[in-house]
Amino acid sequence: MVYLNGKQMSYQKSRYLLLLLVFMLAGKLTYAQFGRVQSLSTFDDRPIHFGFYLGVNAMDFGFRFYPDPITQNPVLQLPENATIKTKTEQYYKGRSVRVDVDPISPGFSVGIVSNFRLAEFADLRITPGMSFGSRQLVYNDSISADVLSGLGTNGLDEKSYLNIPSTYIDIPVGVRFKGKRYGNLRPYVYLGGTYRIDLENKRVAERAIHMYKTGAYIDLAMGLDSYLQFFRLSTEVRVSLGVDNLIDHSIGTDENRIPYYGFAIERLTSNVFSLIFYFE
Length: 280
Fold this sequence. Notes:
Structural class: alpha+beta
Mean pLDDT: 85
Order of helices and strands: HEHHEEEEHHEEEEE
Distance between the termini: 61 Å
Number of helices: 5
């Protein structure tokens, strides 16, 4: 049998007391969130309320390519574009040109919230804001030196040349379907749409790829409302999938702005993945 002296007994008691205090605190927090003590108990009864949000995002592109753009891209089949077709064929060198976004870079979002109560378990949400981010394009082959020496490159290397920044004005509208409230927590799902306008001037990569600056998106999200003492904090994971084809194959008269490395792309969509914190 092991006997403990006074100091050992005191240390043992202190440790048990500390553990007891931790369990009591955890129980109090759990009771506050799931138990009978409800903060902002009439918050969801308001017909309208406002707030703001902050978030982080990651922007990506979805691509679909022509198996053989030289013979399948309609723009290159026009008689007036015969010279451009020949030059594109020289750049591609008989290879399949492919491009992807790598790596995925973080950005951020900010905006305001207008919430309209539709029913006990449904709200209409209008959350205009702005999103900032960039996409790094990577081709499966090096870009021709002729393209990199074009107007506006200013001595940029290929990686910098193919970095596509975006500053979006976001106009999202959707419906939040709320679950049952448990104490101070309430889960929800969201379904809506967003119209985005890109304010960035694509001054680089103009001889690689052209894109339209506006597009519509389908938004799917799920989140959790936390009712605190003075406001509601909502944490949401959202997927915003572009539905419009943003690739622009139009050819102007300026040789320095012909998107040779965009002719391989049949369809390009923009996708935005976000983690958003709402303060209401």
